[in-house]
Amino acid sequence: MKYVSTRGITTLGRFTDVLLMGLAPDGGLAMPERVPTFSAQELEGLRHLEYPDLAYRIMRPFIDDVPDADLRRILRDTYTPAVFHSKDITPLTPLGSSGLYLLELSNGPSLAFKDVAMQFLGHMFEYVLEARGEHLNILGATSGDTGSAAEYAMLGKGRVNVFMLSPHGRMSAFQQAQMYSLAEPNIFNIALQGVFDDCQDLVKAVNADHGFKARFDIGAVNSINWARVLAQAVYYFKAYFALNLPAGAEADFSVPSGNFGNVFAGYLARRMGLPIGQLIVASNENDVLHEFFSTGVYHVRPAERVAATSSPSMDIGKASNFERYLYAITGNDAPQTHGWWGEVGQGRPVDLRGTPHWDAVKASGLRGGRSTHADRLNTIRRLDQTYGRLIDPHTADGVLVGEVYRRPGVPMVCLETALPAKFEETVQEAVGRLPERPERFEGIERLDKHFDVLPNDVETLKAYIAQKLAGRAQG
Ligand SMILES: Cc1ncc(COP(=O)(O)O)c(C=O)c1O
Ligand SMILES: N[C@@H](CCOP(=O)(O)O)C(=O)O
């Protein structure tokens, strides 16, 4: 499979090239030149597969530059019950007989859905870098969960260093402790004076300096990296088959959304032929995506208008993967996508009303909705009382908006994107007690914290990376 950029470059290479590249040289995002599809009969053949085998079948058409036996081994090593604390890896749990289901994605090492793809990236990076005799310096941006998932996945990986930008003071106490308590020599935590969007913009700005990127082997672990999206598509298939529906029957999915990577993975699964009816894009108070799906106008918010909410990992004003979506709904029109994203970058709206692109949006199955602090408290409380199930604030956003779009007789799968233990304060506010915390995280907030505070400035960041890597080379 060849990969192209959403902004026009048609020769990005094959899977392992885009894995290491992260962002395309023209600033765009990697996309496969075509999306392979499964026929109804082929889908039936996937129904009973174990997670690693299912992942192999979904990913294989996109990964044709890794020998078969190696890919199978990597997937078997990645998706183990020991790491994900469940033999199903991403189990599906019904909420009573409501037709609502929770897709449990957060039983991995960092207690958030990011682990599912990030563990795969960790194994894949190790394999490819070893084969090529190369090293990678990952530069990432987190609003709370990507950071710890990436750092846990890269622990002890000799060929990888991680530089992780997080918005200073904006994550939950638990999220901060998870990341900042790590004292590994290959992990560098940077608390940026800004919001998540500033962190993500800096990642893109560093990548845009091609000389710096090449000299320091800069790579990515955010969902701008195609491998993240691809690995996330697998659990939509797993969940669909776990519903045990008759062949061809539709299921709907509700996805707490921020950077739009998770829901784009669902869209990919739908494009591959999985009978997904609706894909619900659930936003919090930072509701740019909701605004787009209800009006046809996409207008990002400047950093100073991104609110700090009680589902902080979704405090995102400019969703990177929306660029992939625009590219897809235009039928892979890179010049059009590039033009639009240029407007977005200038803070100007992209208005699809009255165009064929808006019809394409409607046909794509995506719908939007928003939730507020009071909504998520009520939803957490209601699910606890009704089903004895405690959920985190992000999952609550997904459940609440998902309920709005229920269709008679069609199951609604709500993605559980984090465990409540990561957001104790809000959960306690909702139900008056603390959520359970896995034993390995007891007292984590009391551990020493290791991080550096940096201003929102690309040159300062580049100097920081260069200096830390020089230190690593000497040590
Ligand atoms: C707990 C949680 N829920 C939802 C999201 C939003 O997912 P996405 O950025 O893929 O839209 C994130 C962050 O990405 C998250 O950490
Ligand atoms: N919500 C994320 C933000 C980054 O998302 P990603 O999926 O693009 O890595 C976080 O918690 O860090």
UniProtKB/TrEMBL annotation:
Pathway: Amino-acid biosynthesis. PROSITE patterns: DEHYDRATASE_SER_THR. It is an enzyme of class 4 (lyase). Keywords: Amino-acid biosynthesis, Lyase, Pyridoxal phosphate. GO terms for biological process: threonine biosynthetic process. Transmembrane segments: none annotated. Its cofactor is pyridoxal 5'-phosphate. It catalyses: O-phospho-L-homoserine + H2O = L-threonine + phosphate. Residues 2-79 form the Threonine synthase N-terminal domain. Belongs to the threonine synthase family. This is Threonine synthase. It comes from Deinococcus metalli.
